[in-house]
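Appendix C reproduces, verbatim, an entry submitted by the partner laboratory led by Prof. M.T., so that reviewers can inspect both the input and the predicted structure.
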Amino acid sequence: MNELDYANGSDQAWLTMFRECRKQLGYDHPIVIEYNWIAERAEVIILLRELCSEFGDMEWTEKHNLSDIISKHLIHHLIIRKSKRQPKKPIQQIED
């Protein structure tokens, strides 16, 4: 198990507990409504860890702004990767 797996597993455990609390309190409970964004953010962080470890870099923490993580640590690398690919050769047309 690596650090990424540990972090994702820990977050998944906390999310499971939060989801159970939401269920017990009722989804329309004011506390659930007010703090639901926390669970959504945690789910996004888990996905970003997986994407950034595969296609970007891991030079960020959960405390970073989500748009910064996406733009600087994922999209930036995807743009570089795309620019390094060889352009496709045009299809030659057969003349009659």
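Residues 3-66 form one domain. Additional entries are available on request from the coordinating office.
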